[in-house]
Amino acid sequence: MPLLVSPTALARLVHPEGEKAIARAVQTKGIIQCVSTNASFPIEEIASALSPSSSSTPPPLFFQLYVSKRRPDTERLLRTVWDLGVRTLVLTVDSPVAGKREADERVRLDDEQAAPMGQGTPVSDKKGGGLGRITGSFIDERLFWGDLGWLRKHWKGKVVLKGIMGADDAKMAVEHKVDGIVLSNHGGRNLDTSPPAILILLDIRQNAPHVFQSLEVYVDGGIRRGTDILKCLCLGATAVSIGRSFLYSLAYGQEGVEYLID
Questions:
Q1: Residue of 8, 74, 186, 194 with catalytic role
Q2: Is 69 a catalytic residue?
């Protein structure tokens, strides 16, 4: 099925099993979960929630990466992810700084709502808990195209760029020989008035059609029905990914996620 679970932070805010329940559901239904750097659990715990498979079968996981200001920390994380058998890395490039998410700022948090791989620690003050401060404060705002060389020294699998929002950047991704791109406005949460990803897909189809022959193209955001998936496939997408809907379904645990996929 051309469907993935988008990387979303802190799924344990919805259900105690968080990303682990999602992992078990996607394994049952034969789709892929992209685990966020800002997940509620370390990637090792999420992978351990899966049923054992043969050593030649990779886990049904991609890993989404925010590059840390402390590059050695990111390098250690990449080695951990690789050792678990994950072979596709989704590098987020649209968040040099955290978006201004006013509702997030007012949420009060406790220690159980930390993101262990993202190096964020909850600290509530008179303004609230500040989810953005937890999930975005460690991100390296200096990340640029030239850092792909550094990344390839530490990651030998596929590299997919998440957050591409125009045909020109898609063409640059081809020039830098990445394996795929994710068209995404970050759920509309990083920059007000961002266009939906499907319009960017149409932009690439009209102005840079060669991109579809050069790399995989994923569409993230705005997918609500099977017909939405069909529209994206007809415009050349490899697959789509869904975030919010899976979080809503997670309120019912693994069963809810499986029901949504069906």
A1: 186
A2: no
pLDDT-flagged residues of the chain (< 70): 54-56, 108-114, 119-136
Instruction: Give the whole-angstrom CA distance, residue 59 versus residue 56.
Output: 10
Per the DSSP assignment, residues forming a β-bridge with 64 are 90
Q: Which long-range contacts (CB under 8 A, 24 or more apart) does 213-219 make?
A: 214/174, 215/173, 215/174, 215/178, 215/179, 215/180, 215/181, 216/160, 216/179, 216/180, 216/181, 217/170, 217/180, 217/181, 217/183, 218/4, 218/160, 218/180, 218/181, 218/182, 218/183, 219/182, 219/183, 219/184
Which structure tokens are listed for 235?
Answer: 């415009």
Question: What is the Cα gyration radius of the chain?
Answer: 17
Instruction: Check residue 136 and give its pLDDT.
Output: 66
pTM: 0.91
Q: Is residue 80 annotated as part of the catalytic site, yes or no? A: no
The verdict on whether 36 is a catalytic residue reads yes
With residues binned 3-state (H G I as helix, E B as strand, rest as coil), the percentages for the chain, rounded to 5, are 40, 15, 40
